[in-house]
Amino acid sequence: MSIPTSSELALIRTQPHQTQMWLSVFRPTTVLACQVNNPSAAKGDRVVPYDTVSTGSYTNVQADYTALIGSTAGAGDIGRIRVRSADASNITFAENSDIAWADRLFITVLKYVDLVPIFPRIIQDPAKATNVIFYKDYDLAYTNQNTVLGTLLCATNHKAGFLNNGTYQAYWTATGSYTVTGETGTYSWYFEGGTPSTYVGLEPGYVSYNTPGHYQASLTVTGATINDVTYRYVSVYDRPEAGNKPPDILRWELEEIGGSRDEGGHSVKIKAWDAAGFVSANDLIVIFADEWFGTTQQNIGGNAKNNSSIKFVGYVVDGSISYNWQESFVEFQVESPVGMMGLKEGFSVSCESKKSPATWFEIADLSVTRAMYHYLRWHSTVLKVCDFQYTGPDYKVQYFDSDRESLKDAIGKFVEMGLRGQIVSDKQGKIWVELSAGATNNPETDFPVALSMSKQDWMGEPQIDERLQKEISYLEYGGIAYSGVTTGTFAAMMSGAPGAAPSYVGKPEREQGLILVSQSQLNTLTGNMFAYKNSRFPDIEFNMAGNYANLDIAPIERIQVNMAQTDTSRGIVLNNAPFHINRIAWTYNPSNGSFLPTINVAQLVNGVAAETIPIPPQPPDQGFKTPSIQIPAIPAITFPGLDLSGLGGELTDYISLFGNSFDGVFTSIVSWTGLRAKGTAFQFPGNFGRLYEVNIVKSGVYLIRANCRWTSIGTATRYFNIGIGGDIPVFRAIGAADPTGVSNPLAVCTTYVVATQNLSITVNDVTGFADANFELLRLMS
Amino acid sequence: MTVRISGTTLQTQPSDVSWVTRPTLGIDGAGHPVYPAIRSAQLSWDIIDAASYGELQGLYAAAGNTGTVPVTLPQYGSTTYQDHDYSGCVLHEPEYDKYFEQTYMGVKLLIANIRGA
Question: What is the dihedral of CA A513, A515, A520, A525, to 10 degrees?
């Protein structure tokens, strides 16, 4: 919803209203048409050789463009697939399993990016079976992507319009874009078919198009490390009475148009006559309008600056197209971008906050925006075709996890469970992620006023749902406040509303997993949500008395309702009572030019801060005491006797190798590359001096055992270290202090390690170290 | 009164031109009716010859399924009686009650989507 100016508000209240809707179906340009040139082409192919180019060139192909695979030229009967890249002989497609590739199939690459998921690939490390390697988009290895991150871009909506006096003016701005690292980027625009055709800066303003056609606009943001691109599509038409290139579909009707915040956006059902063949799945639909308020022709509304004529942007739902051949019409469903995200399934993703990410599942100083950017950038094309704006606080978060679920649920559940937020498309297709109406600090005043309405603004009697008693008796929220990777601290917090004692009526509700910053913030959130869930007026339905085109379901804005006692039969009185829109259903009647919304609004209320629930260091036992467990003493272990032949300066060291892989030649198993070669005289190199470095040349599970003795007498504890993969001790054998002066205290240490090729094992000594036996037993390969 | 459709003066002028009463969209909370912005006018002929009826049918066909036409009608609500040009109007298909002795009787032509009236 956009905030109307005072003059716009006056215009909205000027009767009568008229709306003339127009339907645009974007027709992407073909940038490359060719045929598969591979007699052995088969299911699962990604790199597809081609020849017989009939249109365009591979040089026009950009990453993420859409390709139709068909049995005839231009057809898509075999499949529709995202393009990764193209060169003079091959096209590389996204990972696919549902296309039966065959020689001579027709490939049509469109200058158009579908809203689709991008699949990751996880494989077993061929060099080490116990490791896995993560790739994005089949073969993108991790370098520094989760450190440099990027930008949640806004470029305004897709557009459609008429040439008026030979020109269509389209307004562009990148306002609302947000680089998650804070880096300042350079915004570079390219407008195909527009004047100017290029612009560098945040807000190009109006761009003129003077030839009917379908065009692509692109916005690229680049910086020291960031590099993102997003595309928008523009359809320019002659007015039907003024030229020979009007919209393809002129005879159509809006059977349904409406949406709610819970649904994530608007959906539209369209019936079009004589339109068979003009509509196919995933087509971009733009509904635009001419509007009159009184005698003034002017467009009002829309969140995108100076794009008020765009009333709806969405995509044709696959499988929703039905034909009535007898009456010559086609019906189809169009969903908002968030609605389409709900129909596209992605893979599960799990990420952790790290200071220096080294792999795909680590993200630098993870936060809410960084998590969303990572998911949407690397697991979908959403950011390539939609504005995306997050309006809430960018809290630090230690983990981000999404299940194998829809793109909408991946983001929606993250913000719902973590922030009490929602993901919603506005009518123009911009994706808003924002805290829900009860989750802000001051719901009654946080949101700007979109409309102060009174009885002149609605028709009939409002349908008022009044909550006469609480639905929620007790609300308990809990979560974690994570400080980020710099300090790396986190604290668990809980809060309860209304307080220690619940209300007498209603049901209790408990939710955990919130992303928090402080206990006071949680208390405020819990108190406000408790009040919101128990508000007196959870739903009032108004049939608006005109084309209140500024109203939308996102972002959340305030509707101030004024209702006198005499306005309703129930005598309810409201004075500038704050509400927000939860749902809008529009009725379009082209025969009388009316476009009327019915809105459902919910009351905004400030709550009283909830009370802190202390979290004890250990869970309370609630009277139940765990009985103590008697653990029997560990039986003494007898070790084989030491080979003491090396005492007095001579060391007997040996390597014993057993197991199935024993080949009798231990030098093929290990090699001695340390300071001291096998069999050479033992020397005391001093504290922590390295004795041996053993490089294992065969992978396997080894038993390492070392026996050692000290010749000196003393009271200090003696110990003996074994380091794996370097000098850092990972295992230490303690020799007891010997205050009585007994010589040759003995320490024995035994450990198991899984060693791989070229992993070194070092043995360190301390002062007074006498000698040692060192055994390395290869137990299994 | 001279009715013209798409710039063509009808060879047989209608015997009656009536503005169709606008249905209200509803009543606002203050009790005022909410009207649509556009009106319809109905042209009527008690009896018309085949050529004149064919002219009406031809004008309708020329507009096609998607076209709009300019229409000259007596101006609605004017303080003086005068003709007025309305643009962007939509023609419904002409209709008649019966065909008798090479004439059409009870002919009606509805002109819709008339703005500014």
Answer: -70
Instruction: Mention every residue, 6+ apart, whose C-beta is less than 8 A from residue B107.
Output: B44, B45, B47, B48, B53, B56, B94, B95, B96, B97
Lowest mean pLDDT among A123-137, A389-403, A714-728: A714-728
Q: Can you count the helices (H) and strands (E) in chain B?
A: 1, 10
Task: Determine the Cα–Cα distance for residues A204 and A331; give it in Å rounded to an integer.
Answer: 38
Taking the C-alpha atoms of residue A502 and residue B111, their distance in angstroms, rounded to an integer, is: 66
Is the distance from CB of A157 to CB of A313 less than 8 angstroms? yes
**Cβ contact (<8 Å) for B27 and A455?**
no
The whole-angstrom distance between B60's CA and the closest CA on chain A is 15
Residues 6+ apart with CB under 8 A from B17: B1, B3, B41, B42, B43, B44, B73, B74
Q: Is the separation of the CB atoms in A228 and A152 below 8 Å?
A: no
Phi and psi of A194, rounded to 5°? -105, 165
Q: In what order do the strands lie in the sheet with A168-172?
A: A168-172, A205-209, A194-195
pLDDT over 50 (residue A749): no
Q: What is the mean pLDDT of residues B64-78?
A: 91
Partner residue opposite B66 with nearest CB, options A15, A250, A458: A250
Contact (Cβ atoms closer than 8 angstroms) between residue A551 and residue A468: no
Residue A118's Cβ-count burial label (10 Å; 0-12, 13-18, 19+) is buried
Q: Residue B4 in contact with residue B11, Cβ under 8 Å?
A: no
For chain B positions 79-108, those within 8 Å of chain A (CB to CB) are 88
Asked if residue A293 lies in contact with residue A547, where contact means CB atoms within 8 angstroms, the answer is yes
Q: Within 10 A of A426 (CB to CB), how many other CB atoms are there? A: 28
Q: Which residue of B lies nearest to A249 if distances are taken between CA atoms?
A: B66
Q: How far apart (Å, rounded) are the C-alpha atoms in residues A377 and A120?
A: 12
Distance from CA of B87 to the nearest CA of A (A): 11
Give CA–CA dist A141/A545, Å, rounded: 57
Residue to test with chain B: of A293, A459, A542, most B Cβ within 10 A = A459
Q: Is B21 on the interface with A (CB under 8 A)?
A: no
Q: Say how far apart CA A233 and CA A157 lie, in whole Å.
A: 8
Our CA-based measurement puts residue A592 at a distance from the nearest CA of chain B, in whole angstroms, of 6
Between residues A726 and A654, the one the model is more confident about: A726
Under 8 Å CB-to-CB from A664, ≥6 apart: which residues?
A: none
Closest CB from B23, B32, B38 relative to A18: B38
Written in H, E and C, the secondary structure of A531-584 is HHHCCCCCEEEEEECCCCCCCCCCCCCEEEEEECHHHCCCCCCEEEEEEEEEEE
Distance CA A313, CA A302 (A): 11
CA distance A553 to A569: 28
Cβ contacts of A257 within 8 Å, gap of 6 or more? A266, A267, A268, A269, A312, A585, A586, A588
| Closest chain A residue to B40, measured at CA | A592
pLDDT, residue A6, reads 86
What DSSP assignment string belongs to A309-378?
TEEEEEEEPTT--EEETTTTEEEEEEE-HHHHHTTSB---EEEEEESS--STTEEET-BHHHHHHHHHHH
Q: Which two tokens stand for residue B12?
A: 């047989």
Measure the CA–CA gap between A172 and A156, rounded to whole angstroms. 6
Between the two ends of chain A, the Cα-to-Cα distance in Å is: 66
Say if residues A779 and A701 touch (Cβ distance below 8 Å): yes
- Asked if the ipTM is above 0.95, the reply is no
pLDDT at A713 over 50: no
Q: How far apart are CA A707 and CA A720, in angstroms?
A: 9
Strands A558-563 and A449-453: parallel
Condensed to tens digits (0 to 9), the pLDDT of residues A54-113 reads 999 999 999 999 999 999 999 999 999 999 999 999 999 999 999 999 999 999 999 999
Helix axes A407-419, A368-379, angle to 10 degrees: 170
